[in-house]
Amino acid sequence: MRVVFAGTPEFAAAALAAVHAAGFAVPLVLTQPDRPAGRGMKLTASPVKRFAVEQGIDVAQPPSLRRNGKYPEDAARAIDLLRATPHDVMVVAAYGLILPQEVLDIAPHGAINIHGSLLPRWRGAAPIHRAIEAGDTETGITLMQMDAGLDTGPMIRDARIPILPNDTTGTLHDRLAQLGAELVVEGLRDLERDGRLPSTPQPAEGATYAEKIAKHEAALDWRRPADVLARQIRAFDPFPGAFGTLDGVAVKIWAGQALASAAGAQPGTIVDVGPDGVVVACGEGALRLTQLQKPGGKRLPAREFLAGAQLASGQRFQEGLPAA
């Protein structure tokens, strides 16, 4: 069984490593072009590219696969390469580029997508973030036969896991990445044995869209209920990191505990400061901030953060983004 793999971040790298370790031939890997990253903004290879290079697997990095897009010549070359690379199936995981129907039709068994939700819930770019933010108690991985729609293809199989009360996007991502890696290997073994993968159309009911996370969403709106903000903080860890603006400075907030009451204080007002955390009034209840970070600093437990920060009851977080 020959597998062309398309993916970019760590979530995809886990699946590629599992496919490779299971003994499937991987003649080609597609991943996004190197991007500037880190303090020096140096061009950095994706986790998928790094793994492929380490294993001696050929890598292609087209900026697009759409002939009618911004990079038609690059797309044409990549499609020609795919056609010239003998393979039985394409596996796709968090690739980040649109795959036109022409590409999906190249492999005899089409393209199988590893999606980080229980479809049809949370189609789209940020299913892990949005599941935590919405307060879902369960999520999982869906193997899907790709079509030209946005995560609309028929479902091959799924696997479920609970979302734990202290899960962040980071911790849930790691569990789902491992689950996806195991599930796709099972699917490829079935395909190799049976020559087909039965699938079921997605139900029309229950579809939701996981819109890509925007940085402006990270600003906490203290008028919202405390439990909603607590979920938002977990959902935006590690990226983009929730924050509140205090005296014109953005303070990152990495952990918070919802409390029942804030004694009627105006939302955003600090009502208590202690070693266990900084308690801030919300639209409903209050939020005890237990892990914070100053600009240029490190994530710190509240006790250590307060040793270097002058916070007091009565101070108030401002609404919106800090002044430029």
Principal-axis shape: elongated
CATH homologous superfamily heading of the largest domain: Formyl transferase, N-terminal domain
**Beta-strand level of the residues, as a percent range?**
25-35%
Beginning-to-end CA distance, first to last residue: 54 Å
Question: How many domains, in number, for the residues?
Answer: 2
Reading the helices and strands in chain order gives: EHEEEHEHEHEEHEEHEHEEEEEEH
Rg, Å, rounded: 22 Å
Instruction: Provide the CATH architecture of the largest domain.
Output: 3-Layer(aba) Sandwich
Q: Which regions are unreliable across 5 or more consecutive residues at pLDDT < 50?
A: none
**Average pLDDT reading:** 95
The largest sheet, given as strand count, sense and whether it forms a barrel, is: 7 strands, mixed
Q: What is the name of the CATH class of the largest domain? A: Alpha Beta
Q: What is the number of strand segments?
A: 17
Structure description:
- The chain folds into two domains: 2-210, Formyl transferase, N-terminal domain (Rossmann fold); 216-307, Formyl transferase, C-terminal domain (Methionyl-tRNA Fmet Formyltransferase, Chain A, domain 2).
- Helix content is 27%, strand content 26%.
- The protein has eight helices and 17 strands.
- It has helices spanning 10-21, 47-54, 72-84, 101-104, 127-134, 169-194, 226-235, 302-307; strands spanning 2-7, 25-30, 35-37, 42-44, 59-60, 89-93, 111-115, 123-124, 138-145, 155-162, 209-210, 243-246, 249-259, 270-274, 277-281, 286-293, 300-301.
- The strands form four sheets. It has a seven-stranded mixed beta sheet with strand order 5-2-1-6-7-9-10. Strands 12, 13, 14, 15, 16 and 17 form a six-stranded antiparallel beta sheet that branches. It has a two-stranded antiparallel sheet with strand order 3-4.
- β15 (277-281) and β16 form a beta hairpin.
- α1 (10-21) packs parallel to α2.
- The N and C termini lie far apart (54 Å).
